[in-house]
Write a structure and sequence with these properties.
Blueprint: E1 2-7, H1 19-26, E2 31-36, E3 49-50, E4 60-61, H2 63-74, E5 82-92, H3 95-101, E6 106-110, H4 119-125, E7 131-135, H5 144-156, H6 167-171, E8 189-190, E9 193-194, H7 204-222, H8 224-229, H9 237-241
Parallel strand pairs: 1-2, 1-6, 5-6, 5-7
Antiparallel strand pairs: 3-4, 8-9
The structure holds S-adenosylmethionine.
S-adenosylmethionine binds near residues 113, 140, 141 and 144.
Length: about 240
């Protein structure tokens, strides 16, 4: 998968080359390009923002600079990419989004700052390529860089060969619509707190049932909205008996 990011703070994207993502780049599972939006300015101040039409606080990112940047970055492949525009006003980014994007050959992220990017940039790009405006949660960050890091990490770990053990992604929270239950490792007793007996029993069926029950309990307490959205066939007889 190819990933390009356009930003006014390229240094903010340094973690893209660290840890798991860095290894994925080394193993050529993903290639990453980070582009400085100011490279497409033509004035001495390298301005990327201007005051909003209609008045109001803050500044808006200029369409001409973004337009040229996206023409060049998105026009550099045989097919146009999927353009992702992080914004708190977007549709929620979820694990389902990450799974869908993990099948894409090329994603381009356009990181906004200030009050965001002139809407015409998004609308015009949508006439030439698939575009999604997405939010990583109901809060407001100062820029799209952290949102992009979040989304790239969620997508990259789903690509074949990126995680050491692919089964861990299959068992994670959200993969079956539930939150994952608690995990434990050695020592068996820590600060007078023992690991649950069943996990040391070697009885795989009992362990699977215990994990499923803990996942159901945790989801019920912390995210009842997930249970409400679960299709009826996702729950077995024992689940329903709880
Ligand atoms: N005026 C915008 C609004 O109220 O919807 C907020 C702009 S925010 C201060 C600046 C930039 O941060 C956005 O263009 C976007 O790139 C990024 N951003 C902030 N919160 C975000 C979120 N929850 N999800 C994704 N991106 C976000």
């Amino acid at each position: 998968m190819r990933i390009d990011v356009v930003t006014i703070f390229p240094e903010y994207l340094a973690p893209l080359r660290a840890a798991l993502l860095g290894k994925a780049i080394e193993r050529e599972k993903i290639s990453v390009g980070v582009h400085d939006l100011r490279d497409w300015t033509h004035d001495v101040h390298r301005a990327v923002d201007d005051s909003p039409y209609g008045g109001g606080p803050g500044m808006v990112m200029k369409p001409d600079v973004w337009g040229e940047a996206l023409d060049e970055v998105c026009g550099s492949g045989p097919q146009p990419p999927r353009l992702i525009v992080p914004t708190p006003a977007g549709r929620p980014f979820t694990q389902r989004t990450a799974v869908r994007w993990s099948a894409e050959p090329w994603l381009v992220f356009a990181c906004g700052r200030y009050e965001g990017i002139d809407q015409r940039v998004v609308d015009e790009a949508a006439s030439r390529m698939p575009v999604e405006e997405v939010s990583i949660g109901d809060y407001v960050l100062v820029g799209g860089e952290v949102a992009t890091l979040t989304m790239v990490e969620a997508v990259a770990r789903l690509l074949p060969g990126v995680l050491g053990n692919p089964a861990s992604a299959e068992q994670d929270s959200f993969s079956d619509g539930l939150l994952e239950g608690p995990s434990y490792t050695r020592p068996e007793v820590w600060r007078e707190r023992p690991v649950p007996d069943v996990l040391r029993s070697g009885n795989h069926a009992a362990i699977a049932r215990w994990r499923r029950d803990r996942a159901l309990d945790r989801t019920y307490r912390r995210r009842p909205d997930l249970l409400e959205r679960l299709p009826a066939e996702a729950l077995d007889k024992k689940d329903r008996a709880r």
